[in-house]
Amino acid sequence: MKAQTNLFRRRAVRSLRFSMLTLIALFLSCTGEQPSSNAPSTDSGQTSPQQSLLDVKAIEQMVGDPQASRKAYEEDKGAYAWQLFVYLNSPLTGTGQKRWETDYRQTSTIYLPTGCEPPPWGQTSPPAEVVAQAKNLPNWVDPIQVWHNLDTRIQVDGLVLLDTWKQDVRYQLLMNKPAFDYIIERGFYNVDGQEKAARDGKPADFPATSFELKTSWIWIGTDADKFNQLKPSYYIAPAYFEVVENGKHIRWEAGYAALSGMHIINRSRPNWVWITFENVDNAKFTEAKLELPIPDYAAQANQVFQQALRGMGSIFANYQLDGVQLDFQDPTLLANSNIESAFQSQSSCITCHALASIKPNGAYFNIVDRQGGNIGYYTGTPPSTTGYTSLDFVWSMKRASRKTNCP
After folding, report:
1. Is residue 12 domain-resident?
2. Residues in the chain with pLDDT values less than 50
3. pLDDT tens readout for residues 220-229
4. Rounded to whole angstroms, how far apart are CA atoms 55 and 58?
């Protein structure tokens, strides 16, 4: 049985190899036609290259197998990144919940203000005030199935990004169940548990199947004109955020938001794999544009997957892969215009997250590079973190609070 399972996984991965990308690219360039999601199978019963490209079941086999994942990104990291994006955003058409919306959990429900252990795995309900507001929202997404808590507007550098309507772009962080289970097992959901790991000299070591996501959103609220401008090219979902003034809760704001960017990271490598996507129209609707060039492998994968998705009428044809980072110099820089807006020329996801670490007194490593009197961010090989205990690249743990009044 084990041999049969491994054989199936190898076959699933082979069906997604670079040769398939090349075949589809040649087909599109020769015919000039948009691919059809209803393309028939060949007489032999095999699926067409396009169908294999978007075969979520085959991709799922790879996602759950770190060894298969490593093989896939070593062969073609552009295709691998797109396969993850396709998998996470399936179903690719219609208004159904996307896989990442149901299979991933927002960190706002994990790192609680009290530092207490979070509820068991599963989706949590939004605040009652949000549920009440939902009854009066325009019927733009029906039915409303998942609410996104866009719990911050602050980027890593402490700045905010505005859209062209002068409203803040907002963000959320999520993780999958293997990552969540490890957080619970080690007690990392509060600062106390992280400090204990530092005192005991036991660094974090997440399972190889761990994933985290970071998403960016253009807030729509109930602005019909804004919704109509964004609807043709953005995935739109119900969302909410807390309005806070001078550290005091004022109210919850509920409405709709448009997905503008997505970081995808996973632990299939010791240094994790770093992938970022964004909407092709971000420069039109936000006050930021991508400053780093899109590498050739990403541009080729973008062309192939965007055309395949466009052929089936998927909104996700309007997203692009900005790049993939596999090591500190592979490449040195990686940025998303809506997530690292103001410091793209100094943005290295892998280097920044390699510094995720804590001292026994609860002090986290400072990611700001002040060498030479300048203020910047580390890129390339990270500096020494002697005296700190590694959090295994997971900076989301910095969202944890100290334990107070827990049962």
Report:
1. no
2. 1-20, 22-45
3. 999 999 999 9
4. 6
In whole angstroms, what is the distance from residue 354 CA to residue 331 CA?
15
How many domains would you assign to the chain?
A: 1
Distance of alpha carbon 232 from alpha carbon 237, whole angstroms: 14
Distance spanning both ends of the chain, measured CA to CA: 46
Q: Encode pLDDT of 345-377 as tens digits.
A: 999 999 999 999 999 999 999 999 987 777 789
Please say whether the beta carbons of 54 and 233 come within 8 A: no
With respect to residue 156, please indicate whether it lies within any of the assigned structural domains: yes
Strand stretches in 167-247, DSSP E: 169-175, 211-221, 236-245
The set of residues, in sequence order, having a beta carbon less than 8 Å from that of 201 and lying 6+ positions away, is 389
Instruction: Give the helix/strand (H/E) hosting 47.
Output: none
Query: CB-based contacts of 134: which residues, under 8 Å, 6+ apart?
Result: 144, 147, 238, 254
DSSP-derived 3-state class of residue 59: helix
Q: Residue 53 has what pLDDT? A: 84
Question: What angle do the packed helices 296-311 and 77-88 form, to 10 degrees?
Answer: 40
Task: Identify whether 62 is part of a domain.
Answer: no
**Which structural domain, as residue segments, surrounds residue 247?**
97-295+318-399
Residue 58 forms part of a structural domain: no
CA distance 148 to 85: 18
**Neighbour-count burial for 79-114, b at 16+ CB within 10 Å, e otherwise:** bbbbbbbbbbbbebeeeeebbbbeebbbbbbbbbee
CB atoms closer than 10 angstroms to residue 396: 20
